[in-house]
Structure formats: C-alpha cells, structure tokens
Write a structure and sequence with these properties.
Blueprint: H1 7-15, H2 23-34, E1 40-41, E2 52-54, E3 59-64, H3 82-106, E4 109-114, H4 115-118, H5 124-133
Parallel strand pairs: 3-4
Antiparallel strand pairs: 1-2, 2-3
C-alpha cells in the first residue's frame, strides 16, 4: 500500500516528531519538581539515555510512548513498510529489556511509565513513584 503523502511531506511530518521535551515529559517533570525532587533530564552519559535521572535516589525514569515502545494495549502497526516497523519496534523493546537489566544489576530503581498511564487523571503511577522515592 502506497503512502498517502509525498516523500517530502512525510519527511516534514516525521521531522516534527520530538524525541525529548514532549508535552507528557514536560508535564511529568513539572509535577516531580513541584514535589521537591531535583533531577537531570536526557543525560546521554547514562546507559539508555533515561528521560529523568534522580541520582540521589539511584533512580532512572523512562517515559515510553505507546507507539515507539510497542505498547500491548495501544500500539497499531502502520499499514506501510510493515517489515521495517516490526523490526524497529522489536529492537526498541529489546533495548528496553537490556537497559532494565543493566540498572537492576547496578541496584538502581527503574521506572518505565507508559504514555497512556501519564494521561490518566487519577495519577496512580505518579503517586506510586512518589511513595517509593520518599521511603
């Protein structure tokens, strides 16, 4: 199935996809800051380049989008270039597992928070994180 837009237009669309400072990340970080936690963001010196690093608490936080990380509930395979996307998402999920294993081995806390969990109004995930950090 052919793409519905030209290659140039598709390139422009894809170039607007942000890899950091997305709306969900900014909102999450603001809430964390308001609770008094100080962090570093998108540090490339840490394995897997976590979205948020709380060094004092030996905690890394990854805010995973449902599309790029293959969410079981919300991921929908694109109709075009299926083989490419299957391989891409498989590599992403494999890398996520390797990153988790790495930080567990170091004794760090790892939080992987799905995009759909951040959109919930009840803040269950955020409250669990706060509870763990305040121990």
């Amino acid at each position: 199935m052919a793409d519905k837009v030209s290659k140039l237009q598709r390139s422009k669309i894809m170039s607007t996809v942000k890899s950091k400072d997305t709306k969900m990340e900014v909102n999450f970080r603001k809430a964390l800051w308001q609770q008094g936690f100080r962090y570093r963001k998108n540090l490339s010196k840490y394995f897997g380049k976590p979205d948020i690093v709380l060094k004092k608490y030996k905690t890394v936080i990854f805010l995973d989008s449902c599309f790029w990380h293959g969410c079981q509930k919300h991921f929908r395979m694109p109709a075009t270039r299926k083989k490419y996307w299957e391989e891409k998402i498989a590599k992403n999920t494999q890398r996520d597992k390797e990153v988790n294993k790495y930080y567990k081995k170091l004794g760090w806390n790892i939080f992987r928070i799905w995009e759909h969990d951040l959109m919930r109004k009840d803040n269950i995930i955020f409250n669990k994180l706060l509870k763990m950090l305040k121990k």
